UniProtKB/TrEMBL annotation:
The keyword Transport does not apply. Gene3D superfamilies: DD-peptidase/beta-lactamase superfamily (3.40.710.10). It holds the Pfam family Beta-lactamase. Keywords: Signal. InterPro entries: Beta-lactam-related (IPR001466), Beta-lactam/transpept-like (IPR012338), Diverse_Enzym_Activities (IPR050789). It comes from the Bacteria. Residues 41-422 form the Beta-lactamase-related domain. Residues 1-29 form the signal peptide. This is CubicO group peptidase (Beta-lactamase class C family).
Amino acid sequence: MNHRNAFTRRSCIARLAATLLPLPSLARAATVSAPPWPALQNVLDEFVIERSAVGTSVAVARSGTAAYLDAGRIAFDSPEPFDENSICRIYSMTKNVTRIATLLLVEDGKLSLEQPVAEVLPEFRNLRVAIDIAKGLESRPVTRVMTMRHLITNTSGLGNWTPGSDSGDALHRLYRERGITPGSYGTGRTRPGYGAQPATLDEMVARVAELPLAFEPGTTLHYSIGFDVMALVIERVTGISYDAFLQKRLFEPLQMHSTGFQVKPHDARRLTTNYDATERQVNSAEHSAQDPALPAGWRVQDDRAGSDWLKPPHLLAGGGGLVSTSRDFLRYAQMLLDEGALGSTRIMKVDTARMAVGNINPPNAAEPDEGVGAGTRAMLRTPLIPPGTIGGGGATGTLFWIDPKHHTAAVFMVQVMYGGPARSPFQKRLFAAIDQDMASA
């Protein structure tokens, strides 16, 4: 059961913020359930006051009782409050959904984690691997078999298009030149050095198969497009599109009505604007002159009014294409916490759910760079969330996690790219506030 409490200190904070910075006003009082989360609410307010975020939302459930807390607005140029129904790009949180989708097919008997990928994707029958990816693209035939397990644990050996990944400069440059850029949207697809994206996952995989792997399958944990390739595996095994499969097996049963690869026209007013505050930005003086409403060094990454997510998806990105809300994704997190069921709705068997939140990485896989792509290697031991919890995050600062010890599930939504957890202002303060509230409850 949920109800609204009026936090009188929030009105004080809002008045103080108005005297300090030209900020959007703080959102309406949060929807909370007893006991409230005052330290958590305070830190959300501070994120907005400090202009670390335009707006943000947390949905948290403890022992089955949900609370929704929020602050700020969906964009600098919008009066719409940022709340549990605001639609956000969740980027790499999509990877976890693809992992669960895969395990549903394992439960159905349609896939096996040890099944060779080439049995479903014959394009991968004659793969080659770089002899030393740090030195170049000279290659030899693979000696290990790529399996379904490898695709959903970032151990497939596949590379990635993102600069700074551990796939080797030459390989990820080739990915960009050939348009193998799932999860790249809008003007990001037309930057110099970026080829035209394929129109289908089939075409994307055909292009990938022509290039060498960065590592032998199963030997190395590194950031890759394995989850995007798995989306095509799921399409071929089920005979339906990947988005249709997710809708049928996850989003409809869980009543995640605002989650998918496209924002429905009647929901467009709830779509947030995404901002980029990474170190790649133009100098702050130039930016401030262009748009004084933005904090120094920020730019609009994807405007809510002309967003790619308002249109049919160009390419279904199983590693980074979904949008969702904190309310929707809390239902997903609660399902994982409660071993595959949300109330009376069972999504997967208990054994499958335990596998879903367990460590399914291949044994003895090396980690060449602890800092690269670590947040999306697997559900366990990511630097985005504290030890003892299970979850992951996305490029726009979004997070979700479950805490079995305290029977808690939570989702944090925000829409600012800082370039990774080390540069994000959110995680440490967020979890400290939650710990404080839980200790005093």
